[in-house]
Amino acid sequence: MKLFFASLKQEICAKWRELTVLLLVNLFELFALSSILVMMHPLWVILVSAIFLMPALALIILCIKDNKPDKQDIKILFFIIGLSIIFGIMKSYLYVISLFIAYLFYKDKKQMYKWLFIISSFSLILFIVLAMFRLMPDVAMLRYDEMWEDVTNIRHTFGFNHPNHILKYVLATSVFGYMWLGDNKIHTLIFSICMLLVTLWLGWLTNCRTGMLVISVMLLLMNLPFLVNWFKPKRLIFVFILMSFIMVAFMDIHEINVELSGRPYWFNFFFENFSEYILLGKYYLMMLLKDFSIANYTLYPLDNDFLMTIFDGGLIALLVITYFYYVAFEKATDKKLTVVIIGMFTYALTEAFELAFTYPIYIIMFVELVNRYMEDKPDIKLFKGKAKEIKKEETPE
Length: 397
What we know:
Blueprint: H1 2-14, H2 16-32, H3 42-67, H4 71-87, H5 92-105, H6 109-132, E1 140-145, E2 150-156, H7 165-181, H8 185-206, H9 209-223, H10 233-247, H11 254-259, H12 263-273, H13 283-289, H14 305-328, H15 335-348, H16 360-394
Antiparallel strand pairs: 1-2
């Protein structure tokens, strides 16, 4: 144990800037998911967000400067950042921060997952303690399915601004922990049991049925990875996007609509009434630019992360993200990746992730992309060099 803490201290001293970035991003997301946010004036929200994010961005720039990236690296970074901002208004933060984190840690993914897990676990415990001592507001909410005028249960936010958010955070924490510890069977089993107890306890407190079920199944798969031998990471995104569209077909089947809290109905409703946003998205941006008080439809979240990407950045954005995802995992054979992707994409079918600790799947995707880019870059330069030599030889004297 002494050696473990000694190594942590050494890593903190060596990587204090990178770790400070992770901590600041984590604190911002806790703030953005907290019940305090609901009670704040928008200007204060912007100010507090800047307090977390501006120092993080400054440290990221310093870290990148010290790494001395060449012009090719910078061009690729800003090309993807540009695409992120153009295609994802609500999600651009996720893409940009995930890309920066991936760039800072692509040389040592294990270290990144370890520190993401440690920081998020500490923050989650702190958040729960503050909520238990009433230092964070716990808002009681009704599970109310308006389509059927049926109040089913009282839910507690437990310090977050929505009952579902705390288990989204647990999902992200579970992913980071598994990517760090998942190569050791004993460590994985102990970790899974601990996270299962946390999931069931918080699921009972918040009445978050989907999160409790999906995380529990993912934790089971962590210990039975042979069950996912038939799946390839690069293909999974196509399967889940297809399932998202198939869900719309169940809108007229009352029993399924009830079980899914009206999600098929609302998916179909958005497609029928907001078809002008399908190609380029920007629905959420347009709602924010109009009178927000009359933008009633924003009160009905599109509880599907793939469809939310369409209304935020359009089909083009979804195609670009799908392309990046496919390229990132084209050669992946790690079963941990498959388990994580199945867990997160299953949850994404019925939830829009929004922040949820920068959506781990994006961090993982960008880490793989950056790593592949850095590995292939010397070959690309060598190819260009050979091409020049061939031209010289072919040039007549």
